[in-house]
Design a protein that fits this description.
This protein is α+β, with helices and mostly antiparallel strands and 251 residues long. It is 22% helix and 26% strand. It has a single domain, classed as Catalase HpII,  Chain A, domain 1. The protein is built from four helices and ten strands; from the N terminus they run H-E-H-E-E-E-E-E-E-H-E-E-E-H. An eight-stranded antiparallel barrel has the order 1-2-3-4-5-7-8-9. A hairpin with a 6-residue loop joins strand 8 and strand 9. Helix 1 runs parallel beside helix 4. It is globular and about 55 Å long.
């Protein structure tokens, strides 16, 4: 075993144990512990100049769910790193399900990797860490166009999503390159769950390593570390493996 592999495995084991411990204490996900899940749809028109990944280059449509949440789970009104997790039912995805995780960040070539504190979900959003395409290129995915902030209060946010559609333009960018739009995301409708905006539907475990986007992978060693951390989080809250590939009913 090479020294780099040993370091990767040690880091992955540490991350797994830490996430498992926090999940067990919280009885929820260690990060983004509470979220609102709504129906979502992604319309991809593709890129005029391909990057070497079907998800970015080719047109297509996918439906699924979007989960909006705070990273630290701080009280309503407090600044936090907001996240938008997307799960799509895509036949061309390796697992049939594709996950995309975006977080509040910035749009600039360097700052698109930096997390941003905000009082409500608001674009710019990015994947923070790059993907690798089949042609070997590193790319970022994000919603770089600034949008109005959604309500911070949980009840107000649920009511807003029930009445208004969140529409974001998704774009891809190579390192230091400009954003290039390739899709339109729409999310909204009645919050899935109890109907009162408090309870989520059955547990959904977003996992971008096991549910990759068509033609895109997360580079090593981050992929192994990230996947092991998510596995530890599932173990800590007692989630079964089915939650990794589940699409909630009622979407």
């Amino acid at each position: 075993m090479s020294s780099s592999t040993s370091v990767r495995d040690a880091a992955a084991a540490t991350a797994s144990a830490a996430f498992q411990r926090v999940a067990r204490l919280r009885h929820r996900k260690p990060l983004h512990p509470r979220g609102l899940v709504v129906p979502a749809r992604l319309e991809r028109h593709g890129l005029e100049v391909p990057l070497g990944a079907a998800f970015l280059d080719e047109p297509g449509t996918g439906t699924g769910v979007a989960r909006i949440s705070r990273s630290a789970g701080l009280p309503d009104g407090w600044p936090d790193v907001w996240g938008l997790a997307l799960r799509l039912d895509l036949a061309q995805a390796p697992s049939g399900i594709a996950d995309l995780l975006l977080a509040g960040a910035f749009a600039g070539p360097v700052a698109r990797h930096a997390l941003a504190l905000r009082r409500g979900l608001q674009a710019p959003l990015t994947c923070v860490l790059p993907y690798r395409t089949g042609s070997g290129r590193l790319v970022m995915i994000g919603a770089p166009e600034r949008s109005p902030a959604l309500p911070s209060n949980r009840e107000d946010l649920a009511a807003h999503l029930a009445e208004h559609t969140l529409t974001l333009t998704l774009a891809a960018a190579e390192p230091r390159g400009p954003w290039r739009p390739f899709a339109t995301l729409t999310a909204g409708g009645a919050v899935l769950g109890s109907g009162d905006g408090h309870d989520e539907p059955e547990d959904v475990s977003f996992e971008p390593v096991l549910n990759p986007l068509p033609g895109l992978v997360l580079p090593e060693p981050l992929a192994t570390i990230r996947s092991r951390a998510y596995a530890g989080a599932r173990a800590g809250r007692g989630a079964d493996d089915a939650t990794v590939h589940r699409l909630p009913a009622g979407r």
